[in-house]
Amino acid sequence: MNILQKFFTRKYSNKVEIYSAEGAEKSRKAHSFTVIGILMLLLVVAVFMSIGFGSTKISLSAIINAIKEGDATSTVYKTIQYVRIPRTIAAILAGAALSVAGVILQSVLNNSLAGPNIIGINSGAGLFAVLAAVLFPMNYYLKTVAAFIGAIVTTLLVYFVAKKTGASRITIVLSGVAVGSFLGAMIDTVVILRPDVVVDRASFLIGGFSAVTMEKLKFAGYLILAAFIISLIRSYDMNVLALGDETAKSLGLNVGKFRFLYLILAAVLVGSSISFTGILGFVGLIVPHVSRIFVGYDNRVLIPVSALSGGIFTLSCDLLARVIFAPYELPVGIIMSFLGGPFFIWLLTKGNRGQLYD
Questions:
Q1: For residue range 303-324, what is the model confidence (pLDDT) as tens digits?
Q2: Alpha-carbon distance 154 to 241, whole Å?
Q3: Which of 270, 98, 280 shows the shortest CA–CA distance to 206?
Q4: Of 308 and 282, which is predicted with more confidence?
Q5: C-alpha dist (Å) from residue 189 to 197, 220, 222
Q6: pLDDT confidence of 198, banded at 50, 70, 90?
Q7: Which residues contact 356 (CB under 8 A, 6 or more apart)?
Q8: What does pTM read for this prediction?
Q9: CB 358 within 8 A of CB 244
Q10: Per-residue confidence band for 8, with pLDDT thresholds at 50, 70 and 90
């Protein structure tokens, strides 16, 4: 092969590689937009089902007429306005918040077993929320702040214990289980000594949306929205951090600073959701893994997909909790535990020692 042939062969080969890369990128973006579009459609369907079904069924036409007329004296309007809509929004916010928190924790810690309930963050947020209710029963906003503080203190405590004992992926999980068990015992103690603290102790300890109002959602909802936006903006840096500490440092990323930032964001998301839902389990473990099956590991896409999937998943579980034994209602956390327990066992038996990235 002469020099001219080699030149054209190399040039043509390079062009094929460029076109192939561009085609793959376009295909990936199209796939991501398709998945997001389908999830948004499913979320709309889930919203209407959540508003229409419960202890009493409300038809779609009745929902539309009640909203159009706006008759505050109508029973249907009152049910929709003061019960179904706040509950639906709460389920979407909580599901999205816990799912995104799970994405952050699994990515930052490179641990497929990391989830807000698995490593004890839920228990820490719950304990501080209960203590705030005991000490400041009339200040609801302080409950949200206290839950956030409890979440971040627990996160840092688990990370510190794991780091002192080797910081292996399984050590982080074991440290979280130990800390979570201790904090859970403290919650039980406080609730037993002060049973009037929590209006529905079973709903709080297992998780539920039966007592949610729009007033309770406002402050926590703003915090969740702010944390979600920041997570989305900094999602590229999360991808860099997932390459490993040494690689991230070589690319100019301040590893310690950004890891702490992401842990703070996860704590805000978990604490804010627990302040109005109680201690929900397994959402932050299940949803991120299922989302990765559809869109891969790029956090720029994974975060919005997980938020939508988490909202759909939590809303669907809440709907099941309302209709399975209607007019009686199960705490939604029971449904999630039935789904999450086997899923966690499956993750443990995968054989990659909890590693998320190879």
A1: 999 999 999 999 999 999 888 8
A2: 22
A3: 280
A4: 308
A5: 12, 26, 31
A6: low
A7: 106, 107, 110, 111, 112, 242
A8: 0.84
A9: no
A10: very low
Residue 352 in this model has a pLDDT that exceeds 70: no
pLDDT in tens, 134-149: 888 777 778 788 888 8
* Percent of the chain residues past pLDDT 90, beyond the cut: 25
How far CA 296 is from CA of 25, 240, 242, in Å, comes to 13, 15, 13
Peptide bond into 342 cis (omega under 30): no
Q: What structural domains and CATH numbers belong to the chain?
A: 90-348 (1.10.3470.10)
Sign of the torsion angle spanned by Cα atoms 109, 268, 102, 294: negative
DSSP string covering 130-199, please? HHHHHH-TT-HHHHHHHHHHHHHHHHHHHHHHHHHTT--HHHHHHHHHHHHHHHHHHHHHHHHH-TTSST
What is the H or E stretch that residue 99 is in? helix 85-109
Q: Which two tokens stand for residue 201?
A: 């102790």
- Got the DSSP string for 205-257? HH---TT--HHHHHHHHHHHHHHHHHHHHTHHHHHHHTT-HHHHHHTT--HHH
In the chain, the largest separation of any two C-alpha atoms, in whole Å, equals 89
Structure confidence at residue 178 (pLDDT): 83
| CB of 252 closer than 8 Å to CB of 124 | no
